Amino acid sequence: MNQAKSRDxxxxxxxxxxTPGGDLIYCIDPGKQGRWHLHLCAGLQEILNLxxxxxxxxxxxxxxxxxxxxxxxxxxxxYAEAYPLVLRYQALLNAVFQTDVVWQAAPxxxxxxxxxxxxxxxxxxxxxxxxNDLVVRFERSQPESLSxxxxxxxxxxxxxxxxxxxxxxxxxxxxxxxxEQFHYPYTLKVIxxxxxxxxxxIDQVSATPTLVKxxxxxxxxxxxxxxxxxxxxxxxxxxxx
Length: 241
Description:
The chain is 26% helix and 24% strand.
């Protein structure tokens, strides 16, 4: 009986979310039921007194660990991966999750963790670039205010541009402000058509800038005027199928 209980405590899924300054908020979910990313963003917003939840940290500043029981060997197996921006924190990750494993580098799609895009957040979230010596375990018993966020599935967006320029940076800033203002959780991938024309062909993009809503379905495209808030919201709020 005691042995089974001990084994159960070894089986969990853990998610860690870092800030650019190196602070950490994480959770351990033995039931592997929770969708924790939005809650961790809300936790950082509450703790650091941010004006908005920092959804842009996901996935670029994320690490995950999964421990499960192999039904054939009855041994606990572990897989841990971290995005390149936080892979250097392996020792800290092993400490908070009480493991001793080598963390694998999570694959990053081209343009997903674009440095120019991430830097556009610095003026809005200066606290995230500071080092506060913060290591916080997020629990389900945290105050409900941490969970009052947009309930929908995060959007997957592709932004097609022709090179990285001042115009590209302006578009990124404008787009980010709209998404954050209306509390839309999202992942934004920036695709340079001069380097990846094949991706433009796959998504049927013939002009830049073009914003493509990949999911939730249906797929939608917005070409040209990305400063038009009404058109952008109409695209984002198109009914799911």
